[in-house]
Amino acid sequence: MKTAKNAARVMRLVRRMCQEVMLGKDTNKDGKVSWKKHKGGLAQAKRYTTVMLRLEKLMK
């Protein structure tokens, strides 16, 4: 980066993108991040998978 200001801007962008991957993004601005709306991140995917695995064990 040519300046510290540019580097800081890029780092903020990278941080936001990482948060979106991990936590998801409220794309329709309804105040929620959900799996059904295809807005979820890795945290929602993990939660969904855990629920599905628990349900599978209950059904056996």
Largest sheet: none
Q: Report low-confidence residues grouped into runs of 5 or more.
A: none
Mean pLDDT: 90
Cα radius of gyration in angstroms: 17 Å
Total strands: 0
Order of helices and strands: HH
Count of discrete alpha- or pi-helical segments spanning 4 or more residues? 2
Percent of residues in helical segments? 55-70%
Shape estimate: elongated
Question: Strand-residue fraction?
Answer: under 5%
How far apart, in Å, are the first and last alpha carbons? 57 Å
Structural class given helices, strands, pairing?
mainly alpha
Protein described:
The protein is mainly α and 60 residues long. It is built from 2 helices and no strands. The chain has helices spanning 4-23, 42-59. The longest helix is centred in the first third of the chain and has 20 residues, at 4-23. It starts with a helix and ends with a helix.
Secondary-structure blueprint of this entry?
Elements: H1 4-23, H2 42-59
